């Protein structure tokens, strides 16, 4: 599920992007109207979160541009929650309006509510494919080509973290924050190394030259190119 986040406050944007990605969203971040206009001209999004006040324009302008070419849901983020601004945003075609500061849970609830109105649900996608890797999350089954690959619970959980952040570099700390040991054993940095090696041994054509889960020297790991 692809989200466009347009926010000029880099601190807010960083926290918001990190949190949304942890919820399984694929986030594209822009900090002004120019960048966002380029983004929406190149790709489609399932939902747009637009700050109203931007350094080179307003979220209202972006909402108009989005509405000219699609029915993509729009939620405004703003520090100005007076009635006039709310009405203006909704009249321009926005689906919802949330005032800063906001709680992440509240925002996620609003996002899910809007997506349901559009018959979308970012948790509903049950099949992930990449090269010859297929993961059916509905049945919790993993395939390489036509062969089913048996993973332990923690190996599978770790693979899902990579899938939910495809193309993004994940640090070891981020990976540790996103997994837990369902068997009750303590998961530490060394354990993480072991599990990544096990997944590579099971899924890679050549575990010594991994092409699925790649090591990004000095930064971490990522799934995909």
Automatic annotation (TrEMBL):
The modification 4-aspartylphosphate is found at residue 51. It comes from the Bacteria. Residues 125-225 bind DNA. It holds the Pfam family Response_reg. Residues 2-115 form the Response regulatory domain. CDD domains: REC_OmpR (cd17574), trans_reg_C (cd00383). This is DNA-binding response regulator, OmpR family, contains REC and winged-helix (WHTH) domain. InterPro entries: CheY-like_superfamily (IPR011006), OmpR/PhoB-type_DNA-bd (IPR001867), Sig_transdc_resp-reg_receiver (IPR001789), WalR-like (IPR039420), WH-like_DNA-bd_sf (IPR036388). It comes from Alkalibacterium pelagium. The keyword Metal-binding does not apply. GO terms for biological process: regulation of DNA-templated transcription. GO terms for molecular function: phosphorelay response regulator activity; transcription cis-regulatory region binding. SMART domains: REC, Trans_reg_C. The keyword tRNA processing does not apply. Residues 125-225 form the OmpR/PhoB-type domain. Keywords: DNA-binding, Phosphoprotein, Transcription, Transcription regulation, Two-component regulatory system. GO terms for cellular component: cytosol; protein-DNA complex.
């Amino acid at each position: 599920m692809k989200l466009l986040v347009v926010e000029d406050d880099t601190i807010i944007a960083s926290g918001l992007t990190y949190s949304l990605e942890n919820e399984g969203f694929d986030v594209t971040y822009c900090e002004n109207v120019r960048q966002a206009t380029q983004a929406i001209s190149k790709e489609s999004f399932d939902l747009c979160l637009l700050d109203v006040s931007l350094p080179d324009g307003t979220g209202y302008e972006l909402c108009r541009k989005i509405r000219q070419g699609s029915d993509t849901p729009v939620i405004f983020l703003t520090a100005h929650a007076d009635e006039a601004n709310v009405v203006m945003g909704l009249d321009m075609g926005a689906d919802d309006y949330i005032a800063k500061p906001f709680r992440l849970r509240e925002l996620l609830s609003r996002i899910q509510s809007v997506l349901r109105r559009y018959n979308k649900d970012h948790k509903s996608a049950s099949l992930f494919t990449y090269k010859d890797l297929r993961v059916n999350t509905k049945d919790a089954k993993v395939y390489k080509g036509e062969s089913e690959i048996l993973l332990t619970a923690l190996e599978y959980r770790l693979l899902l973290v990579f899938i939910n952040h495809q193309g993004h570099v994940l640090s070891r700390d981020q990976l540790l924050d996103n997994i837990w040991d369902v068997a009750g054993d303590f998961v530490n940095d060394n354990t993480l190394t072991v599990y990544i090696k096990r997944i590579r041994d099971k899924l890679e054509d050549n575990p010594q030259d991994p092409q699925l889960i790649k090591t990004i020297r000095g930064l971490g790991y990522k799934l995909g190119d």
